[in-house]
Amino acid sequence: xxxxxxxxxxxxxxxxxxxxxxxxxxxxxxxxxxxxxxxxxxxxxxxxxxxxxxxxxxxxxxxxxxxxxxxxxxxxxxxxxxxxxxxxxxxxxxxxxxxxxxxxxxxxxxxxxxxxxxxxxxxxxxxxxxxxxxxxxxxxxxxxxxxxxxxxxxxxxxxxxxxxxxxxxxxxxxxxxxxxxxxxxxxxxxxxxxxxxxxxxxxxxxxxxxxxxxxxxxxx
Length: 220
Prior knowledge:
This protein has 220 residues and is an alpha/beta fold. The protein has two domains: 3-92 and 206-215, 3-Layer(aba) Sandwich (Rossmann fold), CATH 3.40.50; 95-203, Rossmann fold. It contains nine helices and eight strands. The chain has helices at 12-23, 36-45, 49-65, 77-84, 95-103, 115-132, 147-151, 155-172, 203-215; strands at residues 3-8, 29-34, 68-71, 90-92, 107-112, 137-142, 178-181, 200-202. The protein has a four-stranded parallel β-sheet, with helices on both faces. A four-stranded parallel β-sheet has the order 6-5-7-8, sandwiched between helices. Helix 4 links the parallel strand 3 (68-71) and strand 4. The chain is globular.
């Protein structure tokens, strides 16, 4: 049975990914590892060399014992991308989402809750756009006021706060091709954005679909 190690920076993500894996046509056996201190450190100090080395060492070690490794934190995503350059069994959670967003070929409204996520997210979008040859126009909205609600465990209020910020941003710009909820936790806002006339993309289901595709046996 193929296996996957998931690196999280919050315990709350474990249930989300267990549900998605159970709903997806995959026999992946999941191991969850949580390092919430790495996100706190990245927010305070950035992805410095010491932190990058520790994350990279973990991903390489996990890859040695699992068939696939998924980093579910967007802020730590650049490190996962670095490792993935030489180890394709490592996946950054938001790359499949950005590939989908860029394929829609239009203005992308990117919503983030943490300043530390903004630069990695925009850099990833640029990278995907350059790789595919599909130039994109990006608008951003920072939902910083929502993050304390996530930290307090009030998922419903967290989702509503994000949705309010996204709706306000859409009213101020040209109709986007899609809305990207940059962080995995922000999927809580998706139900409150169901009335939008544009696709709302979240990273967890697209990442799990990518895992299932990679885990699928090749042609005989």
